[in-house]
């Protein structure tokens, strides 16, 4: 990838190099043309000493020169200034031979403030000097005389070729350096991005890019890191759900194995033992019945839970006054609580609070939480059921002061098959699916459930339900 981008950049800059050379040559030609056009229009070129020359200098028409800001001087062979009109740059009336020679030499030099046109009248023996202040000067022209001396010609051509070669060399070096620098600023971040992407591809989901750039690469870095974060989360969730699935299958098979083994064992024993007494027979039948009930409960609850988890599952919601509904539902359990020797306190406000619920499923939630309190706690336990409004929703609390749940187990108590004491459950007949179903029902209603508990300090199940 590196070489491809680099050569692409080099090709682009070579193209730029050719274009800039063509542009430079065109600019040079345009300037030459402009210089030509300007020089044709300059007054100094329209009123030269040659064009104004007359044998009698007194009849020379100087008006156009002076009107255009110039001057005319006539100098005789004794270097005396015998006539002057307009501006005069010759400060003296009489010059020495050396001064006049200097004046002639300087008048030809470039960069002075005045431009001079000097012509010698050989018949009348005088110099005519026409002076104009220097206006715009663009000296862009080639002069080629075919009579040029070969030494001069070679030297000039050599210098020109050397300058052109040097120009091309400098431009080439700049092109290579510039293309290299630009490609580095692209290749380096790309390399880092490629490395991180390939680490991600190879399964390192912690892979991130750190470019510290504020350009488009910075944006790409942000998008890449967000994407990697998302993938990492997804993979974690997938792994977790895979582990949960495995654990669920293991728990199901384990929980079904015991009652089925017991049913099979007692049934086989009853069949083979011909001299079974009536008492033994009844006892075995009772065990078979209890274990088949246990297996049946487990299968039913599992079916219910997986039905709730399917995408087609929906609630049959109706709008009810939750206070009235709770009072009615709890009425069914009073007898059970009394029988179990429980002390209970029900705090439900005397007002109407409407929420939307699936009556059958909500009844299951209440039944499960009250039944658990009774099932896992002893006589004399206090059960408080409290309903109140909070933050635009309804809070329903089921709190007992019984044996509680160890903190470590409480963290996962809403997961299927999580139980405190498996032996204790065998006696009570619990499947370990009740709270998982409760949580599912509450969450499908758009609410939430949590538990506050400690060993020997009881359990407090807190349900938050949204109000209409
Ligand atoms: P189970 O069918 O075993 O009752 P649940 O999911 O309803 O399954 O409850 C999970 C476990 O949580 C129970 O086995 C029990 O150990 C514990 N538990 C639930 N409610 C209470 C409670 N009120 N007091 C003490 N332990 C409880």
Describe the overall structure.
- It is a single chain.
- By secondary structure, the protein is α+β, with helices and mostly antiparallel strands.
- It contains 13 helices and 11 strands.
- A 5-stranded mixed beta sheet has the order 6-8-9-11-10, covered by helices on one side.
- Helix 6 runs parallel beside helix 7 (216-272) and helix 8 runs parallel beside helix 13.
- It is rod-shaped and about 170 Å long.
- The protein starts with a helix and ends with a strand.
- The structure holds adenosine-5'-diphosphate.
- Adenosine-5'-diphosphate binds next to helix 10 and helix 13.
Q: Quick recap of the structure?
A:
The chain has helices at residues 2-41, 43-46, 49-52, 63-67, 97-108, 150-201, 216-272, 278-309, 322-339, 359-376, 407-410, 422-428, 434-444; strands at residues 71-76, 81-86, 114-121, 126-133, 317-321, 343-347, 354-358, 382-390, 393-400, 448-453, 459-466. The protein has 468 residues and is α+β, with helices and mostly antiparallel strands. Strand 8 and strand 9 form a beta hairpin.
Key features?
five-stranded mixed β-sheet; four-stranded antiparallel β-sheet; rod-shaped; 13 helices; 468 residues; 11 strands; alpha+beta; binds adenosine-5'-diphosphate
